[in-house]
Amino acid sequence: MANVLFIKANGLPAERSVSVKLYEEFLKNYKASNAGDTITELDLFQVDLPYYDATMMSGLFKESTGETLTEDEARLAKVANSYLEQFLAADKVVMAFPLWNFSIPAQFLTYLFYLNQAGKTFKYTAQGPVGLVTDKEVVLLNARGGVYSDGPMESWEMSLNYVKNVLAHLGIKNPQTVVVEGHNATPDQAQDLITAGLEKAAVLANKF
Ligand SMILES: Cc1cc2nc3c(=O)[nH]c(=O)nc-3n(C[C@H](O)[C@H](O)[C@H](O)COP(=O)(O)O)c2cc1C
């Protein structure tokens, strides 16, 4: 029985969001195929995610060096660490997120910053950083209105690529992905593109 963390990085309702549609379809199918698993849903738009500011950074740094933290530093370090611990406790993680302004929502960026902690999720070596999170299976569900998989916009894709690179840095090398793209660029094909993506999400959820 696996401990599975579902992360939703979009505050829109499913009717208005392709990535939330993917999230709900994946979750529904995963639950049906894995009734005994423990599932935790984390909606990043419903929780308080304080910015990775100087106080939080100072708190996390002092913690790593064994210095005494101020009350505010301790409070903010605890927030980041609680999300990190939840992530580390999961056997499997599903992340659903949109491409917005070529990137990811700020809430998701802040969350990923919490996870990126030297000595906990990666370490520095003479050969460069080495990821320490090597025991986790991850699925990424992404939606982007334009086409980025090839063509002139390919290098502008800093949503899925960013998340994949951050995860690789942590040691998670081969997340499985479902991407719906181009539904805004070609509205006449939008329904078909979304339906195909939902089918892929369902198939993957049933074997994940
Ligand atoms: C704030 C915002 C920014 C967006 N920026 C881009 C963009 O840079 N490029 C693009 O192709 N589509 C962009 N879009 C369209 C989204 O990629 C598209 O709506 C996609 O379906 C997003 O996932 P969602 O439906 O789950 O919100 C943007 C949409 C929003 C709301």
Automatic annotation (TrEMBL):
<dbReference type="InterPro" id="IPR003680">
    <property type="entry name" value="Flavodoxin_fold"/>
</dbReference>
<dbReference type="GO" id="GO:0010181">
    <property type="term" value="F:FMN binding"/>
</dbReference>
<dbReference type="InterPro" id="IPR050104">
    <property type="entry name" value="FMN-dep_NADH:Q_OxRdtase_AzoR1"/>
</dbReference>
<dbReference type="GO" id="GO:0009055">
    <property type="term" value="F:electron transfer activity"/>
</dbReference>
<comment type="similarity">
    <text>Belongs to the azoreductase type 1 family.</text>
</comment>
<keyword id="KW-0560">Oxidoreductase</keyword>
<keyword id="KW-0288">FMN</keyword>
<keyword id="KW-0520">NAD</keyword>
<dbReference type="Pfam" id="PF02525">
    <property type="entry name" value="Flavodoxin_2"/>
</dbReference>
<protein>
    <recommendedName>
        <fullName>FMN dependent NADH:quinone oxidoreductase</fullName>
        <ecNumber>1.6.5.-</ecNumber>
        <ecNumber>1.7.1.17</ecNumber>
    </recommendedName>
</protein>
<keyword id="KW-0285">Flavoprotein</keyword>
<comment type="subunit">
    <text>Homodimer.</text>
</comment>
<dbReference type="GO" id="GO:0016655">
    <property type="term" value="F:oxidoreductase activity, acting on NAD(P)H, quinone or similar compound as acceptor"/>
</dbReference>
<dbReference type="InterPro" id="IPR029039">
    <property type="entry name" value="Flavoprotein-like_sf"/>
</dbReference>
<comment type="function">
    <text>Quinone reductase that provides resistance to thiol-specific stress caused by electrophilic quinones.</text>
</comment>
<feature type="binding site">
    <location>
        <begin position="17"/>
        <end position="19"/>
    </location>
    <ligand>
        <name>FMN</name>
    </ligand>
</feature>
<dbReference type="InterPro" id="IPR023048">
    <property type="entry name" value="NADH:quinone_OxRdtase_FMN_depd"/>
</dbReference>
<dbReference type="GO" id="GO:0016652">
    <property type="term" value="F:oxidoreductase activity, acting on NAD(P)H as acceptor"/>
</dbReference>
<comment type="function">
    <text>Also exhibits azoreductase activity. Catalyzes the reductive cleavage of the azo bond in aromatic azo compounds to the corresponding amines.</text>
</comment>
<feature type="domain" description="Flavodoxin-like fold">
    <location>
        <begin position="3"/>
        <end position="201"/>
    </location>
</feature>
